[in-house]
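Continued from yesterday's entry.
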Amino acid sequence: MKKISLAALTLTTLLAACGGQPGTMPQVSTAPQASTAPALSQSPLSIDPAQIVTTKAGETYVRNQLVVNLRGRSAEALAADLGGQVLDRIPELDVALIGLPAGKDARSEGVRLMREGQVRYAAAQLVQRREAPVKTGQLGEQAVKQVFDQLPQYALDANHMNAQPAWDAGYTGKGVKVAVIDDPADVSHPDLRPNWAGKAFDPATNTTYTKVQDWIDWLDRIDGKLDQKVNGSIDHGTAVASTISSAKDGKGIVGVAPDSKFLPAAIFQPGFVGDYLVARSVIWSVNQGAQVLNNSWGGLGYSPLIKQAMDYALERNVTVVVSAGNSYREEWRNPAQLPGVIASAALDINNEKSGFSTYGRHISVAAPGVDVLLASPLFINEDGTRKSGYTADGGSGYQLISGTSFSGPYTAGTAALILGAKPDLDPYQVRRLMEETADASVGSNAAGFDRETGHGLIRLDKLAARLKAGNMPEKGGAARVKVEIQTPGGYVPGILADAVLEGDGADGAVYGVQTDADGYANFVSIAPGTYTLRVATPDLTLTGGNPNERDSYVGKITVTSGSVLSTVVPLRVVLTKGAVNLNPVDPYEPNDKMEQAAPIKYGDRTNVAYIFGKPRDLDFFSFMGKAGDKIQADVHARATIGGSLDSFLVLRDSAGKKLAFNDDANAQDSSLTHTLPADGTYYLEVSSCTILCASDGDDPAKGQDDDSPFNKYVLELQQLK
């Protein structure tokens, strides 16, 4: 291997909240295949970019793909009722992915199915996009103070995680499999090949690869020739895998758990990635014997599918590690918000929180994540052979890289060290061991927990001493909450309620979930103790509406060590508001034609109205204007009041002639300004982009159906000076 100089390294950065996406329909077998498979573009799980919708809260979902927990119901029968088609199934979760016909919105269809009690949950598939790279500084002098294997790795030295004492004590992750749910890692890399577990997974085609060359050939098909550049769509997963499992063989770098084996599951492929591929990868990883799952990805929103997949792992004693995210702010990100997972924040070379690292009360521990030296994919020579090791001609072999994407796998590797020594520990015990042996002086609270770094920097020397001493934390526990809403007709399940557990004290852990169709919120593998329980229904970013339509509850709940979800008694919470209305009444109907237009005048804001009740609803409002009046009309819809309406607005004169129109002026809400040409009556036409965008508002027949009870809007008309 060629000797490396730090100056030759390429500084490459990717975020923890990686993402990707693409749509069609045939069906895929649920039995994994063991040879060559088609590319993602041929998969029924691809996503049509035209079907991607962004909500008021910034969540991104697929309008025509519905994820359903069937609760024993026939997937084909349900798809037929919806006029759609079954795209795929995950039998372990009793989940199906259903492609919907044009005009149906997965979010509103999902709520309807839940409200009717037909399924355990139904939701649109969430998707992720890759974020912009994190910009960081150069590697500091501390990096060369200690060398592991051949190349300098500051993250593992005595000033940081201090791995050598743990390795010397025999804690190397031997016998532990770690799943890398990420990019399709380059298993041929000389630092990774010795510790590849012998299987790699493409969830888009449900294919398991067992030969290095077959996997590399597949990488080349989906990514193009690797000798063209270091491509982000495989770069990230290679770096993540090397953080955990790089072999300690005197060459290149070494992973924090150098005797662990890794299983790559490739969720990030060209285009977009949806939570269905993630869930399928989680199930595959658990079924292959993974004891730790690393998830260096994330985004906004709540996914009941990801929650169920993570619970599948946790309930089988699999430790789940997630990156906190790189949003630079305090917030919850999916899946870092979920109960039972270990959320990892990123530190810089000075053991201070990185500027980009997402923070909050859900953070568990912190690890290095700025300018860490990790593996990068290898190039292919013109003759088809693969170069080995580092070359200075473009980043082949190794890279400096930054993000909570890499503090996460340092944490996952630590979990592997623990489980190699104590394989019977549950996921909470693994988490708590890290927290109790962390360096609490790191962060803003030298005495203990803080929101920026959790319980502090992982210290493997202290962890090794604790493992040798043998006194382990108590086991985790479980909790269930049953939410009901009292209505004039009786009690109904409180679906889509937000349920949050807050541990007592400044360092009390926080977990958040959403209720299912039966009103249950489940918390798996969490810290024992007393929590404040907060419940509120429903999520207005989904249904739209005003805050006063929500009801809330605050109380206490106790979690017992060793309790499991199947036997714990649920706590019943009764609310009086928040039942989802699937048959709203539009106060302005009928106003589907100009001659039926509802009156509006300057300075008015309408009550909440709906594009609902027919496949291609149009709403007309009339006002009087004078020549020279400069008017502004605004449709407040998905971006401002929530709900599902991507509005479209048209201004017409008294003869029906189109004077102006607008689709998106403010994050998919519509707004237009216009100077009126004459005295007279004018008309504002409100509808959905799905119905009118194809014809710029002229011909609804050229569009698609859009009929959702969450197509809410408020129309405002002003005269500008």
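--- second protein ---
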Amino acid sequence: MTLSANHPPLKERTIAKLLAGLAAARGDEAFLLYRDSRYSYREADDLSTKLAQGLHAAGIRHGDHVAVMLENAPEVMWLHFALAKIGAVCVPVNNAVKGDLLSYYFKQSDSVALVVDDAYVDRCAAVQAQCPLLKLVIAKESEDEVWTYVHGDDRPPMPDLAASFPDAHVMRYEEVARGHAHLAAEHAAAWAAREETKYSDMLHILYTSGTTGPSKGSMVSNATAIAVSLKYLESYGYTTEDVLYTCLPLFHGNSLNCTVFPALLAGGKVALSRRFSARNFWPEVRKFGATQFSLLSAMTNILWMQPESPQDREHRARLCQIIPTPPFFAEFEKRYNIRITSLYSLSDYGMASMYGPDAPREKWRSAGKLVPEMSTVILDDDDLPVPTGTIGQICMRSNEPWFSRQGYYKMAEAFTKACRNLWFHTGDRGYIDEDGYLYFVDRMKEVIRRRGENVSAVEVEHVIQRHPSVLYVAVYPVRSEFSEDEVMASIVLKEGAALDAEALIAHCQPQMAYFMVPRFVEFVNELPVTPSGKVEKYKLRASAEPRLADIWDREKSGIVLQR
């Protein structure tokens, strides 16, 4: 069944209108649970409105792009809502990013402002000179545990913002969050006269991992975010009684699209954790009375390996979304007395299938049944359909206006190329069975899935290639002890050059997120290539995996990466 006609009409599909309506209808009912705090729908609306007023007074206007680099906290939620109320575009940035990739995100997104935790000020200040459009920096005080997580045991003093960003106007988040009540009257007048946000206005730019080139910013409208959330309600049956828990960072599309917005549409609750912890996960699920949560596969494996406990079934959770579903599917459901759900959704384009709680359990290996809002086919290398059950490339085409993404920001040519022959080519291989269930097989793209993070092999290669001793490099996945991918680099050195693995890691760490830094490193005389000169990474992987115990391993060497 397609989206119900009883849902909000298209012109009313903005996050701002949705939150205002829920504040009026739900009032003092809880919306956000965080640690020992509880925020109602009315408070969420009021706090985000004050923040929006403060941002507007600081110069943020409709259509402006604002980069956000914050640890999970209620303030991040209010910021998302506040920017939506202004009609500004939120650009969530992975907190682990640094160096050239960080400046790329700021520049490529045309961000004119940055909201950042104090703990990340130094790394942002290091690239600000490369980002001439970044003229406003709003810094938020970090909690002690954030400093410890990022910098270690010793907390540095609060940063001198004016010295860190000499070419930008700097403000404290706490000042901006007060709204315009304490400011000049003209700010209130300007706020009242602001341009109204429309359903078609961009809500987010969510960056995907670069595969054959730089990372692409996927454009998500208000209408699209709401349409996808409504599909969750329809398929998973969320209601006002549901508590959706997430420990995933709010810069990830998963936490926004699978938890925050569906909970909002349902009039339910969001239970927010700072980050994933195997020790704290189930205690938090119990504390918040969570009825649903999402897990990435590495998280699932870590929880599964914990000793069984009589408390495993002592919780209110009824649904657990896992992408992809684990091989111990049935055992997981039985152990925790929970129903696993899943889906196939591409951050570049949209949702193709959903595996709901009522789906046949014998279809557990699938990513669910194809949704009618999206046409999905399997095509061969010549873009021709393959027979049912045959593996090929998963390709998609939206049947519903605003159900899919609106393209790549400033990279229209790349999006058009992916949409050749009217089909968006996902770069993933899979098949569809006779009952219309989609099965993911593997990725054609050069993306390494490491413990819940998508790592671009191309971006890691670009950093390594800049080392003066490196002639050629190939970065590729190898299977780890968690049954997931780890990052490996095979390197050919320039003639007469010297480089060891420890020195390579020291070169990589300041230039990339910690989860991108190679774990396995091997120096080789040559790389296998095709007649056209493309590196045959599958041969490198096949050669390396049986020998991993003998290959240099960063974790075994005792090197601890700084986050």
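The mean pLDDT is 91. The chain is about 30% helix and 25% strand. Will compare against the first tomorrow.
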